[in-house]
Structures
1.
Amino acid sequence: MGTGFKGMHPASTFVFFVFTFVFSMLTSHPLLLGISFFCAFIYDVKLRGKRVVSYFFTALLPLSVLIALFNFLFSHYGVTVLFEIRGIDFTLESLIYGLIFSVKTTATLLWLDCFNEIVTGDKIIYLFGRVSPKLALVVSMVLRFIPLIRAQSEDIANAERGIGIATESGKLRGRLRSTARRLSVLVSWTLERGIDTSDSMSARGYGLRGRTSYNSYVFSVRDAAVLILSVFATIAGMFVNSSLTASYNPKTEIDLPDAFSLVLMLFLAFIMLLPIITDLREERKWSISKLKS
Amino acid sequence: MQSKSARLTILSVLLFLVLAPLTLMLSAKYLDSRSYYIPAVIIILLSVIPFFVFFENRKIKSSEIVIVSMMIALAVASRAVFAFVPQFKPTCAIVIVTAIAFGPNVGFVTGSLSMLVSNLIFGQGMFTPFQMLGMGLVGFFCGLIFTKSRYRTDKLIVSITGALLCFGVYGLIADTCSVLMFVTDYTRESVMSIFASGIPYNAIHAVTTGIILFFINKPMTDKFTRLRVKYGVFEIEN
């Protein structure tokens, strides 16, 4: 289950992340992107600690540079020409927009990293299962079968080693042949095991009418609040995005926020900080209750 | 029951036909930020829904559901079996074999769910919806072409078609995601350069898929036939 934001209802957390993705992908205003990037980064650091820093420097930063560079080399819109090579203008606008675009991608990927930490496989199955029970059944069975198949593959390899027919070194051809044999055994075993499972399911009454499914999530007032706030935030985000223009073609024009959009921006920042606020509040409560006892 | 399933499927197709152009129109009108990733994902989701609605509502034996799940699990887990040659990813080949045995609809579901589950384990990426559609379509087309064809046991034809579909359909759709991630100014050369940079990777993927298909098609078909004779599952239907 997890605590804090992770312990919330899957629907609320899912809608929250849909909001962050849509917002980060649609906006091109540097301030709005900055807010999104900042919130995603600190929440990811809160969730995954130091690993985020290495993820940022080994994967996200190179990707950003690549995107910005690609954009600078291949797009030639804009009026401010920085230099010219063989009649092709390299412009400031394409450089700036490339940087903006890479911040956008980085922010989305950071939110995705948080998403993978919070909305785990079981929650996705739960959300799916409400709409499509058969698909949810398939996905949850697949998730159970994968470790089973891996373990069986290891068993087969051990048996092959035991009778001396496993080829694990030497020529590629021999190794491929050995692997192909193992795969073949594995497939036969998998299919037989599948028949066993389905017999067991029928024996327990799968597919009969009137059977209900177990549900371990409670939808509380807090979850409803997060859900509604996320929906509002999506609308507010779209509104701010359309009222604050940030245009990079043909020349860079970035609106400064007026009072009203500043208020909306603060609201958006608050929503994006909501997960970390929830987590910190819960941790504080926990440490206080530990001190009391 | 059958008519309800048909009605729902037609409804979801109509939904796609109405909402997909609407998404395009709205994004062309209101999105000046040149990020077409979100409309693309919306259209992909809309196009995937009819297949899943059809799968959800068709009559399918519990043994067949389990076998499909097993094949998806095998498609995902088989990457680990071939771990010593990193380019060898049998996922696509196993999806194709399952599609040939089960028909286009199950082929689509197998392909797209194997991508979804693989990403559930290794972490969702921005590629997930594109991979789901791409691999699903590979399964769909293979089922459409081979399930009722007499060439389904022909090693060479199956493996060449599989490789071509893997290259043309899966590669193209997966690379479209890179285009949406990298390009901000959609000129012919910028889009083409992204697609071109994906060609070597896609070619390796397609060729290995073809090779694996060449070797596993016959044994897998035999194993499926054995199951059909022994347990009565795998009756081919649409």
2.
Amino acid sequence: MTPLLTVDNLRVTFPRAAGPSTPVDGVSFAIDRGERVALVGESGSGKSLTCLALLRLIPNPGVIAPGSSIRLDGTEVLSLEGEALRAIRGGRIGLVFQDPMTSLNPVLTVGYQVREAVTAHRNMSRAEARDRTIALLDEVGIPDPAERADAYPHQLSGGLRQRVMIAIALAGEPDLLVADEPTTALDVTIQAQILELLDRIRARRNMAVLLITHDLGVVAGRTDRVMVMYAGQIIETAPTARLFAAPAHPYTQALLQSMPRLTGPVGRLVSIGGSVPDPTAWPTGCRFHPRCDRRITPCAGEVPPWRAAGPGQEARCWLIEGVAP
Amino acid sequence: MSGPLLEVADLVKHFPQGHGLFRPGRTVHAVNGVSLTVAPKETLALVGESGSGKTTAGRAVLRLVEPDAGTVRFDGVDVLAADRRAMKALRRRMQIVFQDPYGSLDPRMTVGASVAEGIEIHRLAPKPEIRARVERLLGEVGLEPAAADKYPHQFSGGQRQRIGIARALGVDPAFVVLDEPVSALDVSVQAQVLNLLLDLQRDRGLSYLFIAHDLAVVRQVAHRIAVMYYGRIVEQGGRDEVLERPRHPYTRALLSAVPEPDPAAQRVRIVLPGDPPSPTSPPPGCPFASRCFHPARDGRCAAERPELRPVGPSLVACHHAESTWETPR
């Protein structure tokens, strides 16, 4: 069975006077139907641009470089135009952004905005569209949906606004929901509500979810597979339980160790020295080598190949001896 | 060492809102009777979600917003009664580091000028020695001396937060309000800044009021924890006591919502329904009653506001705090 989504050698470049920068540089992955995948990275890793590229929403003057490929059910998204592209955007691929306050239009009721998404991909009568809108608001757990449909975004709490965003993303009956930091702007107790809601909807609709986040804690127990991104590239991919139990890449290991936890030792944390490199000047060889305290001879000069590190687990690091896949 | 350095009692701050020509104004009850103490060299974490009043409480302590009622004593001095001159002297000893390292530095001032500002205002060093003092401060927070000649936009978020810390330390304070100092930072950088704050506390004997929403972060730095909900402290106690034996249902929910990087962790996830009540119309009873999952909750919760009272070694504002512990973990 072919995967639902296949991304192959995705590169995003931005022209600059001093030569182009490449904030996304050779990203490849696949997502199966109904699968829950996380793309984890710090700011500047290229994770959000990767997600925007899936919908061809790269901001000007950035471009998706020739040689990149994004196939949805075998159709090359990068060669679609007009109506066919619109059927993907908000149709087969739904998108939820981080900040519902800036993504919703403040002068339109939330019902209007959901209805707009409902009718964008399907012809239906006004009454049908109204019913469908209320059903969607109900599905995302908005109390009194018929009444709340007439509310403006500022009249709703942050959690309810994010539910409206999810309703809009679901309106086109997507096969894949891309959620870019969907809970980062929310309080922890509201974050828990939204993550639970996303998972319930995913199970009911058998929809695939690509969760983009900087927080490994959000990923644990809520995804099947994790891809870790650093400096424009995926550097490790593993089944979620495996990644937490036996992270293979020194960056993943350091990231997990630097997280403050509710259990274990208290006080000073393990920290990664330095900061995330700039896309205009990626380090040579392994891009993590300037910050890696275990670097060896080839790390600075040669790009590490993918190596199998465990069942379903691969990482790009010279330290990995290589386990038979 | 005798008694607390900072003593806050019954602090109240209300914000009038929505005064219209024909419409009576409403009042946002941001801080509603908060009492706390911070001892020398101690870190008290003030924990809560947005709208809980934790940030307003932190600012009211420094009179960055003027409290409506209550008392604040710092090292025996009545802060709220202090005149301009006395306040200036107090500000040298009480500093603040803000959450947003992008918004809290003047983009047109060099880093050196920003860090030197407090030293100049308080005349803590003769002019020719200021530069050396600034460079020493930058070194103390892990930046190069050359950083003094650069502008804030030339630094990453973590480096800017270090600059904000150097700026606060310039006047050699005894007490610092840290208002979500690491929440805008990436995880790997967050650890660097938390470690720096721990080192500075040890080396300089600082007291911190650490305002945060993330209990996992708080666990690394706090000696005691006060949990705020809806403008009030609902639980207060020693760090381990609050984290290991939470007695208020809200504290339990907050703990269970912390995303932990361990899929094997067998935890009962408590997902709270709904949102906190509107800040302009406080309910008569317990403000948490509308979202509470305590099996013993009853009519008393909706009718009568629970006061903060001793339960075991902690202080808890819940009518049923004694039995909270028996709910599944």
